[in-house]
Amino acid sequence: MITTTTELSIGWQHFYGWLGPIMTLIAAFLAGIFAYYQYQINKRVVQLQDYVAITIVPFVVDNIPRIQVFGVGRTNLYLHKYEIDGVNETYSEARLLACGSNMAFIIPVPQHKPNTEMPVRFYLTDEFGDKYISTGAIIIDQQFQVQPSPVPNPEQQTPAQVQATQQLIMRSNIRAWSYKTEKYEWTI
What we know:
This protein is an alpha+beta fold. The protein has 2 domains: 49 residues; 118 residues. Helix content is 27%, strand content 45%. It is built from 2 helices and 8 strands. A hairpin with a 4-residue loop joins strand 6 and strand 7. The radius of gyration is 34 Å and the shape is rod-shaped. The relative contact order is 0.15.
């Protein structure tokens, strides 16, 4: 069978006629894959921009341990309830922990056994209504020190008088830290 040049060129034209739509379908499929992965990347970037975090800063005033709670993430948080070693307080109106500010919420630490770790839990929502739980711990180290009382003239005292003027003073040192903040559907 002998084919002429005209028959060959018609065959190639037929092939090229189908090649355009096939290439268009392949390009559309690859564009769809690219769009999916770009969507995933953008979703992750938004999650990183709106992260939720708090920090706990311990301090002692008049030998009474307290903690300050700061919102250090990129979104405002609202404190609804906290638990410290089984003692909790629930607020009828949530307390604002503003992001990026020096304003803190101060919480007194309840009485406890000295030098033991107390679990801490904060029930939070963000400005979008998502619920979170933040967990941490507090340890209060109590130390007793002997401190002499101020006396008018210490050179003229006998050893018994010096011992009588000494005071036993308790000093508290507090340590606190946050483990993690995670999404959690809590109910109060």
